[in-house]
Amino acid sequence: MDPSSIDIFVTRNIDGYVVAPAGARLPADAMEALGGVVHGWTQQIGEANVLPGWRGVRNDLDACGYSVLSEDDFMALLLPRALAPPPRPIKVGATGALAVAA
Known about the structure:
Elements: E1 5-11, E2 16-21, H1 28-33, E3 37-44, H2 54-64, E4 67-70, H3 71-77, E5 90-93, E6 96-99
Antiparallel strand pairs: 1-2, 1-3, 2-4, 5-6
């Protein structure tokens, strides 16, 4: 298995993803508890490897061979930056920069 490649699986019963080393077998009982999973794609870890949140994913991969990510965590860690939502605009006011509330 290539440690820089991961398989991304979409969960059926929850809004989330399962990440596993590319080519790894997932435990059937754990995946059934998620309502089953469907293989989505394989991708390189890329810049996620240096993000603080990746440490927890790496620990899960080392401990049990897979990691379950919420949709928000997946977007923050693994969504290619070209597809990521744009950053929130900054509004400059009299007192300095203020983030625009969503």
